Amino acid sequence: MSEAQGMLPTSPHPPGLWPSSFTAEHALPGIKEYGQLQAACNQQLFWVEYQPENDGHTVICSWQGGVIKTVSPPHISVRSRVHEYGGQSWCLLDQSLVFVHGDDQQLWLQPFDGEASRLTHTSECRYGAPVWDRPRNRLIAVQEEHPPGDIPADVINRLVSVSLEDGGIAVLHEGFDFYDQVALGADSEGGLIAWISWEHPDQPWTETQLLFGRLDDQGQIDHVQALGHEQALTQPQFDAQGRLHVVSDHNNWWQIYRVEQQPDRIDLALLPGQDEAEYAAASWQLGQSSYLLLDDGWVALSHRDGMGALQLHRDGRTERIATQYSNFRSLTMSGSTLYCVASSTTASPALIAVDLESGNVESLTGGQRPLPIDEIAEPQHLRFNVGNEYAYALFYPPTNSAEQSAQLPPLVVFLHGGPTSAAYPIFNPKIQYWTQRGFAVADLNYRGSTGYGRDYRMKLRKQWGVADVEDAIALVEHLGEQELINPAQVFIRGGSAGGYTALAALAASACFTAGASLYGVSDLNALCVTTHKFESRYLDWLIGDAQYDGHVYQERSPVTNADQISSPVIFFQGLLDKVVPPEQTDLMVSALRANGVEVEVHRYADEYHGFRDPAVQQEVLELELAFYQRWL
Fold this sequence. Notes:
This protein is α+β, with helices and mostly antiparallel strands. The chain has eleven helices and 36 strands. Strands 29-30-32-31-33-34-35-36 form an eight-stranded mixed sheet, sandwiched between helices. A four-stranded antiparallel sheet has the order 1-2-3-4, with no helix packed on it. The protein has a four-stranded antiparallel sheet with strand order 5-6-7-8, with no helix packed on it. Helix 5 packs across helix 6.
């Protein structure tokens, strides 16, 4: 023990058992979520807001002149389930809006001063990413048709137009497995269109195609061209001159390019002023918006080395703006005002307005700080070795001014889902819930995570259950060697794909005291059969071809290796989950109990993949804490 450690006041409570007034109720309800921003030309901002106080409904709200209103019916959740994960679920018209009703997945039309009415009547179809085609008084949207039986191979995705007069539907393009991110632009010949498509077994972060063409007199797509090979293209966008832009990772980093059509080829020209950083993220949901084109430059979010930035490029130079924030998403503009969702390491996400002329930043809503600043654990970005390679994590030390201790703290390893997702340096009240009680938290960005370039992202190809597990174990070893944690008190937890890695790590190493799986994968072979279309071939990339590599699926399934797990495990599962069906959890629970492992399981009848009910979220947090504390 160092002299500095010896001088710390002694707490009667060991780390991990510190009392705290920051309860699960403080950590969850009241924390709103914002997304899908769209701005009108009159400085009016609209967004989709998750409201815990409104039975967890997601509604459309507006802000103008400091006044916030709920625009869509408060009893309706605005939510698309295209690709199961949804995403962009509404669009703004002149004096009305169109949204996807979460219950029936149909498009509804609502005047600002009237009642919402159903626009489409195709019960077998879902809709997402609607875009207003103003000259033709119609929408262009992604349609996902689910024939009876809901077999992934039978689900059909396509681009359709939807008449705003009578809801009539016409197919604009089909033939690809997936569609997303429609962009419209004007030109002298009547209209430009571009979108992103991809085919199985690829995912939108491995390989996609950019397709673009013109809309003819009948509104059909003509003169279609395609771009894409061994790159993940995303977010097509036309500038005021009708020039097409797109984000590509063909040079490792997701960066913004202009599409230049040559007589015999199509080139990508990198826009000036960009860093070697990620200017987009993996498109798990429809309608990402991470950059905007200006008349004299661009504004974009970027991410590198665990930290986000908002960058403005004009007059030949790039500067960071809104530097008090550490992560950004959902950019939109009205005039010279930029709006976005901004996060920091010390407060909840906020909707902010940035005047691009003056640089002034105004917080419109959100940005609450439920803990005093000196009580907040802020992330430290770690890079650590894994054999001859390296991985990354965000480390949060225990922080509670009333409960300092000279003892090394227990550790909770957080594993993000995806697995091609990422942990970001933002205020997460769930992490603070643990650090307030004396736990250290390490939020792992294992190999395969986004935010570190394509090369790093591709390291998980056919290595799921290997690279991510090695990184989790190496992280614990690194923190132990640095004397930042008590290596005898280490817990690992994750949801969905993170739940799979947690279970696989428990089977691979005895360094974990206990673990938690939230709707986690346990049987890879079963997942191939039961999961939804969007991810039904993802395992081809993560593991291998199920027909020829069946033994690998078997070897890497946690249920196969249940006899290697001796640590206690707690499970949480939604019974309506279509991404990771409840049978996955049931199989693992039965296998562990058969081997005498202590298991606790909690099932929720009305929850899908990811829990939405605030009461359920509170209960899960409290139950997980109590479970770990039993083993301290």
